[in-house]
C-alpha cells in the first residue's frame, strides 16, 4: 500500500509506460507500479548508498529484479536516452528537481520521455517555471495532505503544442489582477490547483501566511536597514495571498 502522496503520483503514470523513478529511496513507487501491472519495466535511481541499498533490498524481496533495475547515480545519469517513457522525481525540493531535470536535459536524457510526474516538497513555482521554459505542457496538478503536510504533484507531458497550450494556461484569464501579477500567481499557486479550489490549497496558503507573519514579526524587531525593505516585501506578499484567497474561496 502506497502513501496517499505516492499513490497520487502513481495514478498519473500512463499504463504500459517504462518508468524511471529518480531519488527512489526504498523503490516503493516502482515496486508498486510493476506489481500493479501499470508498468512493465522500471529503473529506480538513487544517488546515496543507504537508500540505494534499501531499494536493492526492496526489489529483491518483492522478487522483481527482472523488471526493476536499481541503479546508483546522480539524477538522470542512471538512464539512457529513449530508455524511459515516464520519469518521476518526488520528495525533494523544487530547486533540486530543476537541477536534475536541467542536467538531464543537457545530457539528452529527456529525449523520448513522454511524461514527467514531479512532486516537489517546496519550491513548486521553480518547477512550473522550468517546465514552461523547456516547453513541457503542464497537464494537471493535484494537492494532497498527508500526516499534516501538504504536497503538490505536477503532471507534465511532452507535446508539440506545448508552447501555445502553456501560453493559454498561464494567460490568467479569469484572475482578478493585472499582468504580470496574474502570471506570477499561476506559477506560484498552480493553474489547475486554482481551478480545482481544493480545501488543501486554502490550508496550504493559510499556513504560508502564518509563516510570513512569523517572518514579519522577526523583521519588525530587527534594527538593520535592509529589514525594512524585506518587511515591506513580506507585507506586500501577504496582501496578495490574502486577496487571492478571498477571491477564490
Ligand atoms: N522519491 C521517494 C519519495 O518520494 O518517497 C523518496 C524521497 S527522499 C526524501 C529523496 C531521495 O532522493 C533520497 O533517497 C536521496 O538520496 C535521493 N536523491 C537526492 N538527490 C538525488 C540525486 N541528485 N539523484 C538521485 N537521487 C537523489
From TrEMBL:
A Pfam short name: TrmK
UniProt keyword terms in alphabetical order: Methyltransferase, Transferase
Residue stretches in coiled coil: none
Gene3D superfamilies: 1.10.287.1890, Vaccinia Virus protein VP39 (3.40.50.150)
Gene Ontology molecular-function annotations: tRNA (adenine(22)-N1)-methyltransferase activity
GO biological process terms held by the UniProt record: methylation
Presence of the UniProt keyword Methyltransferase in the record: yes
Protein name, UniProt field: SAM-dependent methyltransferase
Species this chain originates from: Paenibacillus montaniterrae
Amino acid at each position: 500500500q502506497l502513501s496517499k502522496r505516492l499513490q497520487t503520483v502513481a495514478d498519473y503514470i500512463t499504463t504500459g509506460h517504462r518508468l524511471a523513478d529518480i531519488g527512489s529511496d526504498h523503490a516503493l513507487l516502482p515496486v508498486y507500479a510493476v506489481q500493479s501491472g501499470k508498468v512493465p519495466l522500471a529503473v529506480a535511481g538513487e544517488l546515496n548508498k543507504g537508500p540505494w541499498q534499501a531499494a536493492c533490498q526492496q526489489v529483491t524481496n518483492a522478487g522483481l529484479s527482472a523488471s526493476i533495475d536499481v541503479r546508483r547515480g546522480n539524477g538522470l545519469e542512471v538512464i539512457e536516452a529513449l530508455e524511459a517513457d515516464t520519469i518521476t522525481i518526488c520528495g525533494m525540493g523544487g530547486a533540486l528537481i530543476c537541477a536534475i531535470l536541467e542536467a538531464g536535459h543537457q545530457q539528452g536524457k529527456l529525449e523520448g520521455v513522454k511524461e514527467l510526474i514531479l512532486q516537489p516538497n517546496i519550491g513548486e513555482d521553480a518547477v512550473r517555471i522550468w517546465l514552461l521554459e523547456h516547453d513541457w505542457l503542464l497537464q494537471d496538478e493535484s494537492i494532497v495532505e498527508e500526516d499534516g503536510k501538504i504536497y503538490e504533484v505536477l503532471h507534465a507531458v511532452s507535446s508539440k503544442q506545448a508552447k501555445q497550450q502553456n501560453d493559454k494556461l498561464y494567460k490568467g484569464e479569469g484572475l482578478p489582477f493585472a499582468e504580470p501579477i496574474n502570471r506570477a500567481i499561476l506559477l506560484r499557486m498552480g493553474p489547475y490547483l486554482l481551478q480545482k479550489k481544493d480545501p488543501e490549497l486554502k490550508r496550504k496558503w493559510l499556513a504560508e501566511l502564518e509563516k510570513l507573519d512569523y517572518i514579519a514579526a522577526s523583521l519588525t524587531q530587527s534594527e538593520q536597514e535592509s529589514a525594512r525593505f524585506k518587511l515591506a516585501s513580506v507585507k506586500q506578499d501577504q496582501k496578495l495571498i490574502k486577496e487571492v484567497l478571498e477571491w477564490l474561496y
